[in-house]
Amino acid sequence: MSSDRFFPSRPVLAASVAVFREGRVLLAARGKPPGEGLFSLPGGQVEIGETLEEAALRELREEVAVEARLIGLIAPVEFIERDETGRIKHHVVIAAHAAHWVSGEPQTGPEAKEIRWIEEQDIGELPMTADLPDILKRAFALMRNAAPDDRS
Fold first, then answer.
1. Mean pLDDT by 10 residues, the chain (152 residues)
2. 148 vs 4, 12, 123, 129, 135, CA distance in Å?
3. What whole-number distance in Å separates Cα of residue 32 and Cα of residue 23?
4. pLDDT attached to residue 34
5. Per residue in 90-118, pLDDT tens?
6. How far apart are CA 92 and CA 100, in angstroms?
7. Are 101 and 19 contacting, i.e. CB atoms less than 8 angstroms apart?
8. What residues contact residue 126 under an 8 Å CB cut-off, 6+ apart?
Protein backbone atom coordinates (compact mmCIF):
# COMPACT_ATOMS: atom_id res chain seq x y z
CA MET A 1 0.00 0.00 0.00
CA SER A 2 1.35 3.40 -0.90
CA SER A 3 2.01 5.74 2.02
CA ASP A 4 -0.23 8.47 0.53
CA ARG A 5 -3.26 6.26 1.23
CA PHE A 6 -2.47 5.79 4.93
CA PHE A 7 -3.63 8.85 6.92
CA PRO A 8 -4.10 10.83 3.69
CA SER A 9 -4.27 14.62 3.51
CA ARG A 10 -7.05 14.34 0.89
CA PRO A 11 -9.24 11.61 -0.62
CA VAL A 12 -7.64 9.20 -3.08
CA LEU A 13 -9.40 8.77 -6.45
CA ALA A 14 -9.79 5.23 -7.76
CA ALA A 15 -11.76 3.36 -10.44
CA SER A 16 -13.16 -0.17 -10.54
CA VAL A 17 -15.05 -2.30 -13.04
CA ALA A 18 -17.82 -4.91 -12.89
CA VAL A 19 -17.06 -7.12 -15.90
CA PHE A 20 -19.93 -9.20 -17.28
CA ARG A 21 -19.62 -12.42 -19.25
CA GLU A 22 -22.55 -14.73 -20.05
CA GLY A 23 -24.74 -13.12 -17.39
CA ARG A 24 -22.17 -13.37 -14.60
CA VAL A 25 -19.94 -10.72 -13.04
CA LEU A 26 -16.25 -11.07 -12.19
CA LEU A 27 -15.20 -10.63 -8.55
CA ALA A 28 -11.74 -10.86 -7.05
CA ALA A 29 -10.78 -11.48 -3.41
CA ARG A 30 -8.50 -8.64 -2.31
CA GLY A 31 -4.91 -9.70 -1.78
CA LYS A 32 -3.94 -6.65 0.27
CA PRO A 33 -5.41 -4.47 3.06
CA PRO A 34 -7.78 -2.79 3.49
CA GLY A 35 -10.32 -5.57 3.12
CA GLU A 36 -7.82 -8.34 2.46
CA GLY A 37 -9.68 -11.57 1.61
CA LEU A 38 -12.98 -9.81 0.87
CA PHE A 39 -14.41 -10.01 -2.63
CA SER A 40 -14.51 -6.77 -4.57
CA LEU A 41 -14.33 -5.43 -8.11
CA PRO A 42 -10.94 -5.20 -9.79
CA GLY A 43 -9.73 -1.62 -9.58
CA GLY A 44 -7.24 0.80 -8.16
CA GLN A 45 -5.87 4.30 -8.01
CA VAL A 46 -6.25 6.72 -10.93
CA GLU A 47 -2.88 7.94 -12.18
CA ILE A 48 -2.13 11.54 -13.15
CA GLY A 49 -3.31 12.25 -16.72
CA GLU A 50 -5.51 9.15 -16.81
CA THR A 51 -9.30 9.22 -17.17
CA LEU A 52 -11.52 7.22 -14.82
CA GLU A 53 -12.34 4.88 -17.70
CA GLU A 54 -8.68 4.38 -18.63
CA ALA A 55 -7.82 3.66 -15.00
CA ALA A 56 -10.63 1.10 -14.64
CA LEU A 57 -9.50 -0.80 -17.76
CA ARG A 58 -5.79 -0.58 -16.85
CA GLU A 59 -6.40 -1.91 -13.35
CA LEU A 60 -8.53 -4.73 -14.79
CA ARG A 61 -5.64 -5.73 -17.08
CA GLU A 62 -3.02 -5.43 -14.32
CA GLU A 63 -4.97 -7.21 -11.58
CA VAL A 64 -6.68 -10.06 -13.44
CA ALA A 65 -5.40 -10.02 -17.08
CA VAL A 66 -8.84 -9.34 -18.59
CA GLU A 67 -9.79 -6.93 -21.39
CA ALA A 68 -13.24 -5.37 -21.42
CA ARG A 69 -15.39 -2.74 -23.13
CA LEU A 70 -16.98 -0.21 -20.78
CA ILE A 71 -20.76 0.16 -20.82
CA GLY A 72 -21.12 2.98 -18.30
CA LEU A 73 -20.61 4.39 -14.85
CA ILE A 74 -22.46 2.53 -12.08
CA ALA A 75 -21.95 4.89 -9.15
CA PRO A 76 -19.30 6.50 -6.98
CA VAL A 77 -18.35 4.53 -3.87
CA GLU A 78 -16.79 6.17 -0.82
CA PHE A 79 -14.59 4.18 1.54
CA ILE A 80 -13.69 6.00 4.73
CA GLU A 81 -11.95 4.22 7.61
CA ARG A 82 -10.97 5.80 10.91
CA ASP A 83 -8.48 4.57 13.51
CA GLU A 84 -9.30 4.14 17.20
CA THR A 85 -8.79 7.87 17.85
CA GLY A 86 -11.12 8.94 15.02
CA ARG A 87 -8.32 10.02 12.69
CA ILE A 88 -8.96 9.27 9.01
CA LYS A 89 -6.92 6.18 8.18
CA HIS A 90 -8.16 5.69 4.59
CA HIS A 91 -10.40 7.80 2.36
CA VAL A 92 -10.92 6.50 -1.16
CA VAL A 93 -13.52 7.60 -3.70
CA ILE A 94 -14.04 4.87 -6.30
CA ALA A 95 -15.78 5.36 -9.66
CA ALA A 96 -17.39 1.96 -10.28
CA HIS A 97 -18.03 1.06 -13.93
CA ALA A 98 -19.82 -1.77 -15.75
CA ALA A 99 -18.21 -3.48 -18.73
CA HIS A 100 -18.60 -6.35 -21.15
CA TRP A 101 -15.82 -8.98 -21.18
CA VAL A 102 -13.79 -8.94 -24.41
CA SER A 103 -10.88 -11.33 -23.85
CA GLY A 104 -8.56 -12.98 -21.36
CA GLU A 105 -9.15 -15.64 -18.74
CA PRO A 106 -8.92 -14.08 -15.27
CA GLN A 107 -5.67 -14.72 -13.42
CA THR A 108 -4.96 -14.51 -9.72
CA GLY A 109 -2.03 -12.45 -8.47
CA PRO A 110 -0.84 -10.25 -5.59
CA GLU A 111 -3.96 -8.06 -5.71
CA ALA A 112 -6.49 -10.77 -6.62
CA LYS A 113 -5.90 -13.92 -4.60
CA GLU A 114 -9.12 -15.65 -5.70
CA ILE A 115 -11.47 -15.05 -8.64
CA ARG A 116 -15.14 -15.92 -9.05
CA TRP A 117 -17.77 -15.32 -11.71
CA ILE A 118 -21.12 -14.97 -9.94
CA GLU A 119 -24.76 -14.65 -10.97
CA GLU A 120 -27.07 -11.98 -9.59
CA GLN A 121 -28.87 -14.35 -7.21
CA ASP A 122 -25.51 -15.25 -5.59
CA ILE A 123 -24.64 -11.69 -4.51
CA GLY A 124 -24.99 -12.34 -0.77
CA GLU A 125 -23.07 -15.62 -0.65
CA LEU A 126 -19.47 -14.36 -0.53
CA PRO A 127 -17.65 -12.15 1.98
CA MET A 128 -17.64 -8.77 0.23
CA THR A 129 -16.47 -5.22 0.77
CA ALA A 130 -19.15 -3.09 2.45
CA ASP A 131 -20.84 -1.39 -0.50
CA LEU A 132 -20.33 -4.15 -3.06
CA PRO A 133 -23.77 -5.85 -2.84
CA ASP A 134 -25.52 -2.56 -3.71
CA ILE A 135 -23.02 -1.76 -6.48
CA LEU A 136 -23.51 -5.23 -7.98
CA LYS A 137 -27.32 -4.85 -7.97
CA ARG A 138 -26.90 -1.53 -9.79
CA ALA A 139 -24.42 -3.10 -12.23
CA PHE A 140 -26.80 -5.96 -13.10
CA ALA A 141 -29.61 -3.42 -13.63
CA LEU A 142 -27.36 -1.32 -15.88
CA MET A 143 -26.48 -4.38 -17.95
CA ARG A 144 -30.16 -5.37 -18.30
CA ASN A 145 -30.96 -1.86 -19.57
CA ALA A 146 -27.96 -1.61 -21.91
CA ALA A 147 -28.40 -1.54 -25.68
CA PRO A 148 -28.53 -5.06 -27.16
CA ASP A 149 -24.98 -4.74 -28.56
CA ASP A 150 -23.72 -3.81 -25.08
CA ARG A 151 -25.24 -6.78 -23.22
CA SER A 152 -23.15 -9.82 -22.40
1. 64 96 96 89 96 98 97 93 89 95 96 96 93 96 78 47
2. 42, 35, 24, 30, 22
3. 28
4. 77
5. 899 999 999 999 999 999 999 999 999 99
6. 25
7. yes
8. 27, 39, 116, 118
- Which amino acid, residue 135? I
The pLDDT value recorded for residue 150 is: 54
Nearest to 79 by CA among 124, 121, 132, 26: 132
**pTM to 2 decimals?**
0.88
- Please say whether the structural domain 3-146 has been given the CATH code 3.90.79.10: yes
CB burial readout 29-48, b (16+ within 10 A) else e: bbeeeebeebbbbbbbbbee
CA atoms within 13 A on the CB side of 80: 8
Domain regions of the chain by residue span: 3-146
60 burial (CB, 10 Å; 0-12 / 13-18 / 19+) is buried
The pLDDT value recorded for residue 90 is 85
